[in-house]
Design brief:
With 468 residues, the chain is mainly beta. Helices cover 5% and strands 49% of the residues. The strands form nine sheets. Strands 10, 12, 14, 16, 17 and 18 form a six-stranded mixed beta sheet that branches. A five-stranded mixed beta sheet has the order 20-29-28-22-24, with no helix packed on it. A five-stranded mixed beta sheet has the order 31-38-37-33-35, with no helix packed on it.
Length: 468
C-alpha cells in the first residue's frame, strides 16, 4: 500500500514538471512557434507651423540608421507606429509634406513603452504650389520642349515635339490644383504643310503645367506656337514659341561632294590619305535628318564605303592611295573621280561626284642652259615644272631661282613660286637675268639654278654663262 502511494506521488510530481516546462515554453513563443518581437511605440502629431491646423497625409520616416520604416499622419495630423527592436535605442524621425519644408527630430525609444514625439510644426514652402499657396493665374511661360527642331513628315526624323507651359500667379508662384486654368493653343505662323497641334486646349494640372504636341507637316519652315487663356475675364498669353521643321529626304540639287585637296602628291604612293566629305540637303535646302546613309566609291585607290550624316547634313570618309593607279579616259593619267550615292524621297538613287588628281614626282626643264649677257644687257629664261604625267605639282611645292655671280646680275620674274591647289596650269614659268650696273664693266661667270621642293619631291637644274 505504501508503495502505491509513493508511485502516485512520483506521477503527480512528473506531471507538474511537464506542465511547468510547457508554461515556460509558451511564454517565449507565439502560436505559430516564432519568436515574439519587442517593439517601441512612437506617437506624435504634425501641424501647420503658421496656423496650427492638423496636417493629414504627412509622411513620417523612422530610422535607427540601418532600418527605415514609415507611416503617415491621419486626418487629425496624428500618427503612431510600433518600431520593432530588441533594445532601447536612439531613433531619427523625419517628416515630409508637399508644400512644406521637412522637419527632423531625434528621440530615445524604450522597448515595450510608448514614446511621444514633440509636435512637428512644419513651415510652408511659399515657392511651391504643392500646398496651394498660389493665387489665380496671371502669366504663361514656356517650361520645356522635347525637341529644338523636327523633321518633315515621313522623313524618318522625329515628327512631333511636346511643349510644356507653366502658369504662374501675379507673384510669380506656380499655380496649384485649386486654381486650374483652361489653356488653348494656336499657331502664330506655320510653313503651311499640314502641321497641327494636339490637343487644341487643356486644363492645367496640380503642378500648374499644361502641354501640347506639335505634329509636323510636309513643308519645311518655322512653326510659331502660342498658348493663351482667360482668367477672371482677363486674357493671358505666352510669348510665341518657335520650332523649326526640316530634315527631309536627300535632294539631288542639294547633294554636294568635295575633298580637303584637289591635288594630292600620291601618284605611285601607297596609303597616302585624303578626306572626302558630302553635304546633303533636302529640297528645302535644309540639312537632311541626322543619320542619313551615304555610300562612297572611288575610281582609284581605296575609300571607306559609307558614312552617316551629322546634324548639319555632313558625312566624311577617308581616301587612301594605291592600286589601281588613276587614269581617267577623258582627263588622262593621274585623274580619277570619287562617287557618292544616297536615296531620295521617291526611293531613287541620287549621286554626286568630284574629280581629284594624284600628282607624281617632279620633272623640270630650264632654257637656255648656256648664255652670254652683254654689259647692261639681259637674258630671258623659261622653265617648266610638271609631274611625270605632265600635271601640276601639289600645293606646298615651291620653285626658286638662285643666281650666283661675281658680277652685278640679278633675276626678275617667276623666281619664287608657291604652288596653289590646282589641277591644271601652273606648269610653265619665265624670268630674266639682268646686268644691273651698265656703267660698270665687270666680266664674270654666272650660274642660274632652278630649285624645286615640296611634297612631290625635289629637283634641281642649272644653266651657266658669262657676263661682259
Amino acid at each position: 500500500m505504501k508503495k502505491k502511494y509513493l508511485l502516485l506521488a512520483f506521477i503527480s510530481f512528473l506531471s507538474l514538471l511537464i506542465i511547468s516546462c510547457e508554461t515556460k515554453s509558451s511564454s517565449t513563443t507565439n502560436p505559430e512557434g516564432s519568436d515574439t518581437t519587442k517593439v517601441a511605440t512612437i506617437t506624435g502629431q504634425v501641424v501647420d507651423g503658421k496656423d496650427g491646423k492638423a496636417l493629414a497625409g504627412a509622411i513620417i520616416k523612422i530610422t535607427d540608421g540601418d532600418i527605415v520604416k514609415g507611416t503617415t499622419s491621419g486626418t487629425d495630423g496624428k500618427f503612431s507606429y510600433n518600431f520593432e527592436t530588441n533594445e532601447d535605442k536612439d531613433l531619427s524621425i523625419i517628416v515630409f509634406k508637399a508644400g512644406y519644408f521637412q522637419d527632423t527630430t531625434r528621440i530615445f525609444a524604450i522597448v515595450n513603452s510608448e514614446t511621444e514625439v514633440p509636435i512637428f510644426q512644419l513651415q510652408r514652402d511659399e515657392s511651391s504650389n504643392a500646398g496651394d499657396f498660389s493665387g489665380r493665374g496671371a502669366s504663361i511661360y514656356l517650361f520645356s520642349q522635347s525637341q529644338e527642331f523636327i523633321g518633315v513628315k515621313e522623313s524618318g526624323s522625329n515628327e512631333s515635339a511636346l511643349i510644356v507651359f507653366e502658369i504662374r500667379d501675379s507673384s510669380g508662384v506656380v499655380i496649384g490644383e485649386n486654381n486650374p486654368v483652361d489653356v488653348s493653343f494656336r499657331f502664330g505662323a506655320t510653313p503651311g504643310g499640314g502641321e497641327y497641334l494636339y490637343p487644341s486646349s487643356a486644363r492645367s494640372n496640380a503642378l500648374g503645367k499644361v502641354s501640347v504636341s506639335l505634329n509636323t507637316g510636309t513643308i519645311a519652315g518655322v512653326s510659331q506656337i502660342i498658348a493663351e487663356a482667360v482668367v477672371d475675364g482677363k486674357p493671358i498669353t505666352s510669348k510665341p514659341i518657335n520650332i523649326t521643321i526640316h530634315g527631309g529626304f536627300p535632294d539631288a540639287n542639294h547633294f554636294s561632294i568635295g575633298s580637303d585637296q584637289f591635288n594630292y602628291p600620291y601618284y605611285g604612293i601607297l596609303v597616302g590619305k585624303g578626306k572626302i566629305s558630302v553635304l546633303v540637303g533636302d529640297k528645302y535646302s535644309n540639312p537632311v535628318r541626322e543619320g542619313t546613309a551615304v555610300y562612297f566609291k572611288s575610281d582609284a585607290g581605296v575609300i571607306e564605303g559609307s558614312a552617316l550624316t551629322n546634324k548639319l547634313g555632313v558625312a566624311s570618309v577617308l581616301l587612301f592611295s594605291g592600286d589601281p593607279l588613276p587614269n581617267d579616259p577623258v582627263y588622262g593619267p593621274g585623274f580619277f573621280f570619287i562617287h557618292a550615292t544616297t536615296i531620295n524621297e521617291d526611293e531613287e538613287h541620287i549621286t554626286a561626284k568630284t574629280r581629284l588628281l594624284f600628282s607624281g614626282s617632279p620633272v623640270v626643264t630650264l632654257s637656255p642652259r648656256t648664255f652670254t649677257i652683254e654689259n647692261g644687257g639681259s637674258q630671258a629664261f623659261t622653265y617648266s615644272v610638271k609631274d611625270i604625267n605632265g600635271n601640276p605639282l601639289a600645293p606646298g611645292s615651291s620653285y626658286t631661282i638662285v643666281v650666283k655671280t661675281g658680277g652685278d646680275a640679278v633675276a626678275n620674274g617667276d623666281v619664287n613660286v608657291k604652288m596653289p591647289d590646282v589641277q591644271s596650269g601652273h606648269t610653265d614659268f619665265s624670268f630674266s637675268v639682268v646686268d644691273a650696273k651698265a656703267v660698270e664693266v665687270n666680266p664674270s661667270d654666272i650660274t642660274v639654278t632652278l630649285i624645286v621642293g615640296g611634297p612631290n619631291g625635289t629637283a634641281t637644274l642649272t644653266a651657266s654663262g658669262i657676263t661682259h
